[in-house]
Amino acid sequence: MKRASEAAEITHFHGDYFFLSNFYPSTVEWEGEWYPTVEHAFQAAKTFDLDERRAVQYATTAAGAKQIGRQVNLREDWEQVKLDVMRDLVRKKFRDRELRAKLVATGDAELIEGNTWNDKTWGCVMFRGEWIGKNWLGKVLMEVRAEIAFL
Q1: Exposure winner among 14, 40, 112, 131, fewest CB in 10 A?
Q2: How far apart are CA 100 and CA 139, in angstroms?
Q3: What is the pTM of this model?
Q4: Which residues contact 121 (CB under 8 A, 6 or more apart)?
Q5: What is the number of domains present in the chain?
Q6: Sign of the CA dihedral 68, 70, 73, 75?
Q7: Rounded mean pLDDT of 17-26?
């Protein structure tokens, strides 16, 4: 893995940096239930319907959880709470000592969730040589990295 001090930015969360992805296997707790990935928990948090949450929770893959999450009865306050939910789940993921060390090892590299599926809210897409998007996942990861850097 390239030392983060050598990297001005990390633009894809796969390979050596897969641990930054919400699809990375990392058990997290959300409202008293355990989920195999942040993606599972995040998708389940979109609804208050317990049956829909269970369907997301038991999806065999993070991609499957995401697909189910697109079909749940969205809670009315989702747009207001989704960023705080993501922040909480990412913090929980990086309580793990090994993952925390990996995140801190990214140094001051800008974390950009570059993608090809056109997610310009949680990530960015490359357009005419520059990253376009809000990159909320990258920003949350950098915020958590700053919080834990001195633990």
Answers
A1: 14
A2: 16
A3: 0.92
A4: 133, 134, 136
A5: 1
A6: positive
A7: 98
